[in-house]
Amino acid sequence: MDYQALYQQKLTTADEAVKVVKSGDWVDYTWCTNHPIALDKALAARQNELTDVKVRGGVTMWMPEIAKAEDAGEHFAWHSWHCSGIDRKIIAKGMGYFSPMRYSELPRFYREHLDPVDVVMLQVTPMDKHGNFNFGLACSHLADMLARAKRVIVEVNQNLPWVYGLTGTEINIQDVTYVVEGDNPPIAQLSAGGPATEVDKAVANLVVPQIPNGACLQLGIGGMPNAIGAMIAQSDLKDLSVHTEMYVDAFVDMAAAGKITGRHKALDKGRQVFAFAAGTQKLYDYVDRNPDVMAAPVDYTNDVHVMAQIDNFISINNAIDMDLFGQVNAESAGIKHISGTGGQLDFAMGAYLSKGGKSFICMSSTVTGKDGTVKSRIVPTLTPGSICTDPRSCTHYIVTEYGMVCMKGLSTWQRAEAAISIAHPDFREQLIKDAEKMGIWRRSNK
Ligand SMILES: CC(=O)SCCNC(=O)CCNC(=O)[C@H](O)C(C)(C)COP(=O)(O)OP(=O)(O)OC[C@H]1O[C@@H](n2cnc3c(N)ncnc32)[C@H](O)[C@@H]1OP(=O)(O)O
Ligand SMILES: CCCC(=O)O
């Protein structure tokens, strides 16, 4: 097969390629750093010819051009599988919606439950001599989406790292409708976060001693898991391995500090496995053609049966709040949608199935609102409209700067007592009164 000839045959401009989109279509921008740029701009330029175009994406790193116009919502509707701050802005504008998912199930949604996508547009690496374009930073659910897509337009970006993978990390020119060469913009970066706060350090000081040498790590999205990861990089831990959904800078720091060998991992020995990656240029340089890392579809990385086979699996995630029943909300503030379930529930359940495995949900005990009001993250009941990300039956360790409690096996009053013991002291008395009213407080000697 003459792949170069095929490439030339399918090469076109962004303006020409997006002409395949019709009113009423479902268009997929794929995921995070792989959202299209030149194609998005060209599609936005066609706004006035189009109505009811539904566009999917997730963990959106920059404001899509199609969402910028004041009347954008009359032409396009945005559907996010997982909200970043940008997705929140699109939703606030009234043209965006969240699509709930447990991330491990997303490939199956595309295989079984969703109609084939009319047009997929994504950034990919340049083509190799075998006619393949690599998905770079997002393996995730892309292969299953692309397998059923009616049309696929790839936008080549020379700056996208080539990430070796298990399967589902490339698309061949034969399966592509059009190739567009973009302007090769730098890959969008996610800040590694500021220095760890005193609260982050207090939480890390409780979690890190729970991690044995040889453990396998998953770090969730958000500030605190990454601060803990950075502190693991400076710890005395050794022979760690990585099996995660999202690969972040903290893992690169751990690898640079010689903490990661992957030698005790029963599966994918020696490889750091992830479904997608987002971070700074340091991370992008590290993962590029690096045999130490391996991208894999999210129904592999987030499969509880896979995690169960890896001993000492340690999962560290962040939450918005938790009620006295032990229900964890990691995705909304009442009806205000913030992020999504993502892989949190997958990892909370999977880590517990691993021999020696532990799942940690970490949070600061309080949060300060934009008006300066300090609120407890340990609340009597979840705020009406808030989402239960992890049901009380699935949580393991809950950690704040005031302590760490294991929720497994506890009755309702013991859960309430455990939750209150890690609340900020200023809120404990009120929480006890609330628990009494709720019939889940038992007078004890504490
Ligand atoms: C990735 C893996 O490998 S798998 C599993 C990981 N996935 C998950 O855990 C999914 C769910 N979790 C998450 O999405 C994140 O961890 C979060 C949202 C809980 C925390 O992420 P962070 O980026 O640290 O959140 P941050 O503190 O910046 O808060 C995000 C927003 O929520 C708001 N917020 C946070 N807590 C509260 C609260 N209790 N009440 C009201 N608003 C709140 C913040 O003000 C901020 O809003 P803004 O953008 O309008 O300013
Ligand atoms: C789905 C994106 C990251 C997460 O799991 O929170």
Automatic annotation (TrEMBL):
EC number: 2.8.3.-
Domain called Acetyl-CoA hydrolase/transferase N-terminal: residue spans: 3-188
Residues involved in CoA binding: G220, I221, G222, G223, M224, I320, G343
MF terms (GO), sorted A to Z: acetate CoA-transferase activity
UniProt keyword GTP-binding present: no
Keywords: Fatty acid metabolism, Lipid metabolism, Transferase
Catalyses which reaction(s): butanoate + acetyl-CoA = butanoyl-CoA + acetate
Domain Acetyl-CoA hydrolase/transferase C-terminal: 279-435
GO biological process assignments: acetate metabolic process; acetyl-CoA metabolic process; butyrate biosynthetic process
Active site: E245 (5-glutamyl coenzyme a thioester intermediate)
Family matches, as Gene3D superfamilies: 4-hydroxybutyrate coenzyme like domains, Acetyl-CoA hydrolase/transferase C-terminal domain, Glutaconate Coenzyme A-transferase
The protein's enzyme class: transferase
Pfam families membership: AcetylCoA_hyd_C (PF13336), AcetylCoA_hydro (PF02550)
Pathway: Lipid metabolism; butanoate metabolism
Role, per record: Coenzyme A-transferase that converts butyryl-CoA to butyrate.
Xref: HAMAP family: But_acet_CoA_trans, But_CoA_trans
UniProt similarity note: Belongs to the acetyl-CoA hydrolase/transferase family. Butyryl-CoA CoA-transferase subfamily.
Protein name: Butyryl-CoA:acetate CoA-transferase
